[in-house]
Amino acid sequence: MFTRSFPLFSIFGFRISIDLSWFVLAALIVWSLATDLFPEYLPERSAQTYYVMGTVAALGMFASIVFHELAHSLVARVYDIKIAGITLFIFGGVAELEDEPPTPKSEFLVAIAGPISSVVLGGALYLIAMLLETGSPPEVLAVLSYLTVINIVLAVFNLIPAFPLDGGRMLRAALWWRQGDLRKATRLASLMGAALGIALMIFGAYNAFDGALVGGMWQILIGYFVFNAAGQARRQTEIVARLQGVSVAQLMRALPPHAPGGLPVAALEGGTVTADQSAVAALRQLLRGPQPEALVVADGKAVGVISARDIFTFLNRQAALRNAASVQRDPGRA
Questions:
Q1: Which of 124-133, 208-217, 237-246 has the lowest mean pLDDT?
Q2: Per the domain annotation, does 207 fall within a domain?
Q3: Would 188 be classed as within a structural domain?
Q4: How many distinct structural domains can be found in the chain?
Q5: Is 236 a member of any domain?
């Protein structure tokens, strides 16, 4: 999902990180607010004023996203669900749950906490704007109005019953509670998510061809993200369900034989190497064995793995170097 993220700070014990892709979204938001929304709302201001307003509004938007994800994280902590952290990225933000919620109730409450927090924050910003309406600069009121709307939109969009949106997780919780089968509930909720993603991509393509190129492309990207995330969630749940009761011993490969670091290469085939037996012949025998590799051990610790293929590559390289040196000594042989 992420390209490369950097930690910013911690709050309530949760690490807040920012992904490089976030800067793309931030730049787009500042640009669109400074060149479109705010000039229409407050005409006849300087370009500098609009860009300052756009920057403050963008920072407020991402603070709102962190607030939304913190609500998820704090409720998850109540149910002992581990959270790796919160990451801001090109499509907003995400609380990185390390575990699946243990019950339908915990899933539902963790999911609904986000939209509730956004509605509460939007209401608080609206009240602040009302209190500051008299005597405050119109630029401040414009930014507060934008953040109020953004939080309400964030809540409403996330309530769409399509996984992995919050509404989709609430739907999965309800299906899980009714059917008693997390795997089947995830499959149905993910299908809703995939359908939403396809619908957004089609809608975005229509808007792009209709003249709203930037908005349309953005809708296509969001649709693709939702579609892809729904598929990943479904596959992850399927894998976890199929691995129930499977031990690590059933999946792991047995360790290869170990070889001390000072052991002659010719001895790696495991048998006695006579004086007239070449290293290459011994390695060919090793390659035909059931485990054509060996651990290299030094001071009682495994320091690497060596295989017959590695040694053949080394021998071929050595032969090539010898041939090159021979040609340099006797150019007539080339």
A1: 237-246
A2: no
A3: no
A4: 2
A5: no
> For residue 332, what is the enclosing H or E element?
none
Could you give the CA distance from residue 205 to residue 196 in angstroms, rounded to a whole number? Answer: 14
CATH code, 317:
3.90.1280
What's the mean pLDDT in 26-41?
Answer: 88
User: In which residue are the tokens 């349309």 written?
Assistant: 216
Which of 102-111, 168-177, 254-263 is predicted with the least confidence, judged by mean pLDDT?
Answer: 254-263
- Find out whether 200 and 230 touch, Cβ atoms under 8 Å: no
pLDDT tens, residue by residue, 271-308? 443 333 444 444 445 555 555 666 666 666 666 766 66
Q: Output the six-digit token pair for 214.
A: 């930037």
Tell me the average pLDDT across 40-59: 91
Distance, in Å, from the CA atom of 49 to the CA atom of 57, rounded to the nearest integer, reads: 12
- 170 close to 112: Cβ distance less than 8 angstroms: yes
Integer angstrom CA distances of residue 95 from 15, 98, 125: 10, 9, 23
**Nearest CA among 196, 173, 200 for reference residue 186:** 173
Tell me if 65 is assigned to some domain.
Answer: yes
Give me the domain span that covers residue 56. 5-159
DSSP-assigned letters across all residues of 268-316: GGSSPPPTT--HHHHHHHHHTSS--EEEEEETTEEEEEEEHHHHHHHHH
* Burial of residue 264, with CB atoms counted within 10 A of its CB: 0-12 exposed, 13-18 middle, 19 or more buried: exposed
Scanning the structure block, which residue is given the tokens 């149910």?
79
- Give me the percent of the chain exceeding a pLDDT of 70: 74
